[in-house]
């Protein structure tokens, strides 16, 4: 009937939809599908034999290429797509199928916003799905002329090598065809799958790259899906061809850069942080509604959506391709575009770019992209820091300095960035920021036991013995101190010294040391219901379990490095990051409440890490520090000493402290301004932080005890 139409009709300008051709094509598909359903699996029926023997697909390709009548190309693409999708028996091995399919592939993607774009992308996707399902089928798509026509190979040597390999394999194909009288050809022998798939990617990926530029969002999503399928092919040479012989890396990075540059120069960090989760391909939006919510929401979602696609593409890609793409994102986006934004001096610009970087860190999940992002932010250095090398990496140095910026907003946002960063499953982050400074345990006093000061109650005579100090012990509130029978049923029996036989300080002494740090007159939580220590225990247990899940595949010893293997003579430097955090912690009584919350949030995350050196340095108050060294505990002790001097100069300190706590909890309405508000809020944060540290120490001890028990 279709043939008769062309014989009998002289009007070739009437659209195909005005003819019976679409319905006849649908009937052909129905007949072929029904025929296959009525026969045994793998058996070819007479109608399918007719289609193959009489080269019906070749004829349809010719009509589609001519697009006569207008719209015929669209109909042919749809017919091919449905045929490949609905027929279960393998069709692509047939010479009269794969040849017209080859030719039809060449007609796709040439014109952006073409009326056949949707049909083109559907056709390309089904072809790639079939090739992914049976990679050997790619052999039938080896055609030198097409490879050289479509592929944009920049390396001429690679081009010549590809031509020689393909020519050699085609000669084998022709010999096989001459020996065979059947239409269904088996794959020729001695054809390397890697070469086959390389040719496929060379053919297919430029078409997809073109279609990702379509103004039709649905076409873009389909093209992106096709690229996702191609990068996941398992052969290394396929990955190499994809990253070296196509413009895929340029497409990813150029679009990421253009979306980033379309963002407003100034955005509210809260808008950036709270905008809804973005998944590529599910980007549904309303321009008027987005603009009404906040300026820049639409370009922000577009940027985050493309970032998500890059991240997912790298996650799905072959390892070598993932590495190349991630490095391209680092060089062409992070270094070229983001670094100048982060290094600028404008406070508004710093705040916006830091908030965007924080959102990027939160969103990235692929291992390769995360690694490159971390190297960009922190550098690749592994050796311990020294005061002379803190500025070795300018961006790392600037970001850490921003944690102590004159602008509280910048400080808070940068601290949030680092809090987000240390929770990512990447070992280099923690090594770069803290662990490399603690590797040799040279924060400990390096003296032979006989040369050390005589111990009094298990401690040096000049150590801060909190349990003997009446300032911390007298009239303690009921819930400020732990009872061994209530909380520490599994803890070891008390010994005269502060340390157990295995060298670990008894946990209840550590816990009580933190709980007793803040003197009773500076405490207010026991007067407010629901603010007890037990709330921190639950949170610490959950967070520690999560951190253990992240860190379990890393080579972290369960015990500290033996002293005899440590270089205790090397001068200790806490590292730039801990230095800034400790400096901030030392000013907790004089800086804003929100800053204090963020500083303690970062420090508590570090304390939760299951690394023996970090645990010893941060959570054991009874270690003997080397001269001139400080630890988190010693910093807090100095803060408490300063607090005790200042309390006596503030009239009605305790009632004011309780009122401020109730206001912070929303239990009291805002009223008259209270003097010394910053200090009072700092005292409240300090008390809560000490309870949190006590809970973390307790949870970590019992986790270690449980894992070591039979």
TrEMBL record:
It holds the Pfam family DUF5917. Residues 483-505 are annotated as: Disordered. InterPro entries: FHIP (IPR019384), FHIP_C (IPR045669), FHIP_KELAA_motif (IPR045668). Residues 574-666 form the FHF complex subunit HOOK-interacting protein C-terminal domain. Residues 495-505 have a biased composition (Basic and acidic residues). It comes from the Eukaryota. Belongs to the FHIP family. PANTHER family: FHF COMPLEX SUBUNIT HOOK INTERACTING PROTEIN 2A, RAI16 PROTEIN-RELATED. This is FHF complex subunit HOOK-interacting protein C-terminal domain-containing protein. It comes from Scophthalmus maximus (Turbot). The gene is fhip2a.
């Amino acid at each position: 009937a279709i043939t008769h139409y062309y014989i009998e009709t002289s009007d070739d300008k009437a659209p195909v939809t005005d003819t019976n051709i679409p319905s006849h094509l649908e009937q052909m598909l129905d007949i072929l599908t029904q025929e296959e359903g009525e026969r045994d699996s793998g058996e070819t029926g007479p109608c399918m034999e007719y289609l193959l023997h009489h080269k019906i697909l070749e004829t349809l390709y010719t009509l589609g290429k001519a697009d006569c009548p207008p719209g015929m190309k669209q109909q042919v693409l749809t017919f091919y797509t449905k045929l490949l999708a609905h027929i279960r028996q393998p069709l692509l091995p047939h010479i009269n199928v794969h040849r017209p399919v080859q030719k039809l592939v060449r007609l796709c993607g040439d014109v952006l916003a073409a009326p056949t774009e949707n049909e083109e992308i559907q056709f390309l996707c089904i072809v790639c799905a079939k090739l992914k399902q049976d990679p050997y089928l790619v052999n039938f798509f080896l055609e030198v002329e097409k490879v050289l026509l479509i592929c944009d190979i920049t390396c001429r040597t690679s081009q010549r090598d590809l031509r020689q390999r393909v020519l050699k394999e085609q000669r084998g194909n022709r010999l096989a065809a001459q020996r065979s009288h059947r239409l269904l050809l088996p794959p020729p022998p001695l054809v390397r799958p890697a070469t086959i798939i390389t040719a496929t990617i060379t053919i297919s990926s430029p078409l997809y790259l073109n279609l990702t530029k379509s103004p039709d969002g649905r076409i873009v999503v389909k093209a992106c899906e096709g690229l996702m399928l191609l990068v996941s092919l398992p052969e290394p040479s396929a990955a190499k061809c994809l990253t070296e012989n196509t413009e895929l890396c340029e497409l990813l990075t150029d679009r990421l850069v253009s979306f980033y540059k379309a963002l407003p120069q100034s955005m509210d960090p809260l808008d950036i942080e709270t905008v809804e989760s973005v998944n590529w391909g599910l980007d549904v939006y309303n321009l008027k509604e987005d603009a009404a919510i906040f300026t820049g929401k639409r370009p922000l979602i577009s940027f985050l959506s493309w970032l998500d696609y890059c991240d997912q593409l790298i996650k799905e890609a072959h390892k070598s391709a993932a590495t190349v793409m991630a490095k391209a994102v680092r060089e062409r986006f992070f270094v070229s575009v983001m670094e100048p934004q982060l290094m600028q001096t404008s406070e508004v610009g710093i705040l916006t770019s830091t908030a965007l970087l924080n959102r990027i860190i939160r969103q990235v999940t692929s291992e390769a992209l995360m690694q490159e992002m971390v190297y960009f932010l922190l550098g690749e250095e592994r050796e311990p820091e020294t005061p002379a090398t803190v500025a070795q990496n300018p961006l790392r140095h600037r970001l850490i300095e921003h944690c102590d910026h004159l602008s509280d907003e910048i400080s808070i946002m940068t601290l949030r960035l680092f809090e987000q960063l240390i929770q990512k499953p990447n070992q280099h982050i923690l090594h770069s920021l803290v662990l490399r400074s603690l590797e040799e345990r040279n924060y400990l006093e390096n003296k032979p036991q006989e040369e050390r000061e005589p111990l009094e109650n298990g401690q040096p005579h000049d150590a801060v013995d909190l349990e003997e100090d009446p300032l911390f012990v007298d009239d303690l509130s009921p819930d400020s101190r732990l009872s061994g029978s209530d909380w520490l049923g599994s803890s070891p029996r008390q010994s005269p010294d502060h340390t157990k036989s295995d060298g670990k300080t008894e946990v209840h002494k550590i816990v009580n040391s933190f709980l007793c740090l803040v003197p009773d007159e500076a405490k207010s939580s026991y007067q407010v219901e629901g603010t007890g220590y037990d709330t921190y225990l639950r949170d610490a247990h959950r967070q520690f379990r999560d951190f253990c899940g992240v860190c379990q595949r890393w080579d972290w010893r369960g015990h500290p490095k033996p002293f005899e293997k440590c270089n205790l003579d090397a001068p200790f430097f806490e590292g730039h990051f801990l230095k800034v955090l400790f400096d901030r912690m030392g000013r907790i009584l004089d800086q804003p409440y929100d800053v204090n919350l963020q500083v303690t949030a970062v420090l508590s995350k570090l304390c939760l890490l299951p690394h023996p050196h970090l645990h010893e340095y941060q959570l054991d108050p009874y270690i003997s520090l080397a001269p001139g060294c400080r630890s988190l505990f010693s910093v807090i002790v100095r803060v408490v000493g300063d607090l005790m001097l200042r309390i006596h100069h503030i009239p009605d300190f305790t009632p004011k402290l309780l009122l401020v706590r109730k206001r912070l909890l929303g239990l009291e309405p805002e009223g008259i301004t209270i003097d010394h508000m910053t200090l009072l809020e700092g005292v409240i944060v300090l008390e809560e932080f000490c309870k949190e540290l006590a809970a973390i120490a307790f949870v970590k001890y019992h986790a270690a005890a449980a894992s070591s028990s039979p």
